[in-house]
Design goal:
2 domains, mainly alpha, 4% strand, binds iron/sulfur cluster
Length: 218
């Protein structure tokens, strides 16, 4: 499935939305958890009913980061939800659909406010694991110019839950592919787990580990 942000980026209308400095400050002051609660409220009250009040005009073009995010992600009204994301009109959004909409809104906001400091802290979490799929193993082995079987034997190990393989870490827990200047040696083929942090996943500890997240998690 195409990454929603790749699709959105193709639209001249959607990609023109940006958070102003004032709205970025608002996000930093409130914290992401509070902004998420705002998004949940807006989606539940203005978008989720089968026939939302003033549908098509219920989302202002300014005034709150969630409003901007809704226009940027085509989640501003039921018509856009239908055209872009094939959500049927005339029926209420289920709790799961509401959560997906909120996740998309928050992913857009995070892309606007998060600025990685390249400190490498997320690659040095002592008990962190990086699962790798078969496809990822093939790509990493090819990128490193290694035979796949030899790569699996030398550079991966069984996951703690015994479901699949993880990349081996250094003895101190740091990622084996982190170089001396905090750069990833396999960056072009790095696994999804690394590529999608923090935009598609984070856990309760992430704000403690990552200084850039700490500033905006609230
Ligand atoms: S810990 Fe955060 S700021 Fe540091 S490299 Fe990782 S994502 Fe970037």
């Amino acid at each position: 499935m195409t990454d929603p942000f790749v699709r959105l980026e193709r639209s001249a209308f959607r990609r023109r939305f940006r958070l102003s400095e004032e709205l970025r400050r608002y996000v930093a002051e409130k914290g992401l958890a509070a902004i998420r609660r705002h998004a949940e409220d807006f989606v539940r009250d203005r978008l989720a009913p089968a026939h939302p009040y003033n549908d098509g005009r219920q989302t202002p073009m300014k005034g709150h980061p969630v409003f901007l995010a809704q226009h940027a992600t085509a989640t501003c009204c039921r018509g856009c939800l239908n055209r872009w994301w094939h959500v049927p009109v005339g029926v209420p959004l289920s709790p799961i659909q509401q959560r997906k909409v909120v996740n998309l809104i928050m992913a857009w906001i995070l892309r606007q406010v998060f600025a990685c400091r390249r400190c490498g802290a997320c690659c040095r979490i002592p008990d962190g694991i990086v699962r790798v799929s078969e496809g990822e193993i093939s790509r990493i082995a090819a990128f490193l110019g290694k035979d796949e079987e030899a790569f699996i034997a030398a550079e991966t190990e069984l996951a703690p839950d015994r479901k699949g393989l993880v990349l081996k870490s250094r003895p101190d827990g740091a990622c084996a592919y982190l170089d001396g200047e905090n750069r990833c040696r396999i960056h072009p083929v790095k696994p999804d787990k690394c590529r999608t942090f923090p935009y598609e996943w984070m856990n309760p500890d992430s704000g403690r580990v990552c200084p850039a997240l700490r500033d905006i998690c609230g």
